[in-house]
Amino acid sequence: MWTYAALAKILDFDLNIQQMHNQIFPIWMADLLSYAIPIVELLIVILLLMNKTLWLGFAGSGFLLTIFTIYIILTVSHFFSRIPCSCGGIISSLSWTQHLIFNSFFLILSLFCLSHQLKLERRLLGKVP
After folding, report:
1. pTM score
2. CA 88 to the chain's CA centroid
3. Would you list the domain boundaries of the chain?
4. How many angstroms separate the Cα of 24 from the Cα of each of 1, 29, 42, 82?
5. With contact defined as beta carbons under 8 Å apart, do 58 and 117 qualify?
6. Mean pLDDT by 10 residues, the chain (129 residues)
7. How far apart are CA 4 and CA 91, in angstroms?
8. How far apart are CA 95 and CA 99, in angstroms?
């Protein structure tokens, strides 16, 4: 999921910037996020590919999904003065409510995997029977 999300933003970077500018963020923040989000998404992918950093990848995934999910909840609850455009790629065909369900599923999955990985690592270190 993170690989697809990052590559979609990088491969059509002009669209990525345009979509960020259509969000509720100030322009300076939209510009920063246009670069930062795909970099963070790729960093999460790298962390998830290595055994020693797997737990950190799950934690990063959970953190990023939490931020995105809160943003979607605020959007769906009409917290902002306007509803911004949705994301690009496959997700652009989802409504904001469907996007919330999608993100919630992957957030729960990330947190479950993080919990499982931390238990596994504690067991391997002999700290849990």
Report:
1. 0.85
2. 13
3. 2-124
4. 24, 10, 24, 8
5. yes
6. 91 90 90 96 96 93 94 88 69 83 94 92 74
7. 11
8. 6
